[in-house]
Amino acid sequence: MKSFRLMGIPLQSVTQAEALSLVRSWLDTPAAQHSIYTPNPEILWNARRDEAVRQALLAGDLLVPDGIGIVLAARLQGEKEVHRLPGIELAEAIIRQLQPRLFLLGARPGVARRAGTKMEEWGAEVVGARHGYFSASEVDQVAHEVNQSHAQILLVALGSPRQEAFLGVMRSRLRVPVTMVVGGAFDVWAGDKRRAPRPVRQLGIEWVWRTLHEPRRLLRLVALVGFVWTMAFRRGHNDADPAGEAKRNRE
Ligand code: UDP
Q1: Among 105, 158, 182, 224, residue to substitute to test ligand 1 (most atoms within 8 Å of Cβ)
Q2: I want to staple 13 with a disulfide (CB 3.0 to 4.6 A). Which of 2, 111, 161, 230 is the partner?
Q3: For the segment 81-129, what is each residue's pLDDT rounded down to a tens digit?
Q4: Is pLDDT at 245 greater than 80 in this prediction?
């Protein structure tokens, strides 16, 4: 397992098999809690300014490069051995191979349940599901439901940066051995959305396909431009602390 840092956040380059054996070992020691995040350029860019997201990522145990942008940025920094592991593929492998008890949190009402049917076909047991449109006053109830379910893995599909911020704040209150963010995966597993065709995914440009199909994602490209600019023209910049950055700029 290879570790590297981007924008002050430590990430790991792992094969799917390595990630699976790590998660298996975590499930064997359920007293400890572990979190999996799947950063892409947009998430790392937002983490510079969003303290809740930054703290969540810093406290994470496995941060796998979800986007080709992360791999390219790592290469710019001289890390040749970094490869991509899309979060949705890692999550599916975990479900199929480890067949855990799952709590599904997120997506529109009804979607998690339908996605759960697919996961049960893959061999998992779905012990709880809840949609992702809850208010701040309902968070305690959500945590209670998750804790009562005795799930081994909590999958959080609230979209970024909400899912990272949610886990960052809630992690210590959740009694689940493994938590993992999965973005829009429930929509895909429920059959409501399609992933990009395989050749597009292999090129690492699934985000282009998603932007074309969901134009509301266009705004997200601002973060991508910021990330690329920082990585390409400020090589060596590896600090997630904006205060530190401002100080350096004054010097
Ligand atoms: N979502 C949610 N609660 C919210 C906002 C979004 O549960 O308050 C869900 C949404 O229904 C979708 C997922 O989060 O299932 C976001 O999917 P997206 O593809 O946008 O994921 P991202 O690219 O942000 O990881």
Answers
A1: 158
A2: 2
A3: 898 999 999 999 999 999 999 999 999 999 999 999 999 999 999 999 9
A4: no
Question: What is the number of the ligand 1 atom nearest to the C-alpha of 210?
Answer: 19
Cα(214)–Cα(218) distance, integer angstroms: 8
Cα 30 from chain centroid (whole Å)? 21
Q: Could you give phi then psi for residue 59, rounded to 5 degrees? A: -90, -5
Q: pLDDT by residue (tens digit) across 20-62?
A: 999 999 999 999 999 999 999 999 998 998 999 999 999 999 9
pLDDT (0 to 100) of residue 153: 98
DSSP 113: H
157 within ligand 1 shell (Cβ under 6 A)? yes
Q: What's the one-letter identity of residue 60? A: G
Ranges of each domain in the chain: 2-250
Residue 85 CA, distance from chain mean position: 11
CA of 132 to the centre of ligand 1 (A): 8
Q: Tell me, in angstroms, the distance from the centre of ligand 1 to residue 96's CA.
A: 23
**pLDDT over 80 at 249, yes or no:** no
Q: How far apart are CA 135 and CA 63, in angstroms?
A: 27
Predicted TM-score of the model (pTM): 0.89
For a mutational test of ligand 1's pocket, the pick from 53, 162, 182, 220, i.e. the residue with the most ligand atoms closer than 8 A to its C-beta, is 162
Determine the 3-state secondary structure of 84 from DSSP.
coil
pLDDT, average across residues 203-209: 83
For range 138-162, the mean pLDDT? 97
Q: What is the largest CA-CA distance in the chain?
A: 59
CA of 163 to the centre of ligand 1 (A): 8
